Amino acid sequence: MDTGRIITELSFKAVRSSGAGGQNVNKVASKVVLSFNINTSQALSAEEKETAIPKLATRLTYENILILTCDEDRSQLKNKEIVIKRFLEIIQKALVKPKERKATKIPKSVIRKRIKDKKSISEIKKSRKKPDFN
Questions:
Q1: How many Cβ atoms from other residues are within 10 Å of residue 75's Cβ?
Q2: Dist CA 17 CA 89 (whole Å)
């Protein structure tokens, strides 16, 4: 993954932020909306796209577009920096391949111990029964 190349593929939109802020909130578009189309991305290989799409499935639109917003700060520039940082973290987590699980064999001593324990419990339960005098 080439982060510099991915950042050039991002598209940003500045929107008026909601919430408190007085008169300034009605005049300044400080909220930043980032969108990234995974399907048309040149920075991600086909293999990377295949691993990222299922992991990001809940965050993607039907066209596999990732949309992130940020209105934490009053400054549009700071919001843009925050949303880019958040985007890169999300993409990096999505591209991490989990380690393959190696099947391990159960040791014979463990199997023997389990069977021995089962037999001892069985004996305890047998000793609780009333004796049969027939």
A1: 13
A2: 24
pLDDT of 132 over the 80 cut: no
> Treating both helix axes as pointing N-terminal to C-terminal, what angle do 46-55 and 76-95 enclose, rounded to 10 degrees?
100
What is the rounded average pLDDT for all residues in the chain?
89
How much is the pTM? 0.69
Beta bridge partners of 65: 37
Residue 86 CA to residue 115 CA, distance in Å, equals: 53
Of 62, 116, 119, 59, the C-alpha closest to 91 is: 59
**Do the beta carbons of residue 1 and residue 41 sit within 8 Å?**
no
pLDDT recorded at residue 107: 95
Q: Which amino acid is at 28?
A: V
> What pLDDT sits at residue 21?
65
- CA distance to 41, 44, 59, 88, 126, per residue, from 2 (Å): 11, 8, 21, 11, 69
- CATH class, range 3-95: alpha beta
Domain extents in the chain: 3-95
Report the alpha-carbon distance of residue 44 to residue 56 in Å, rounded. 14
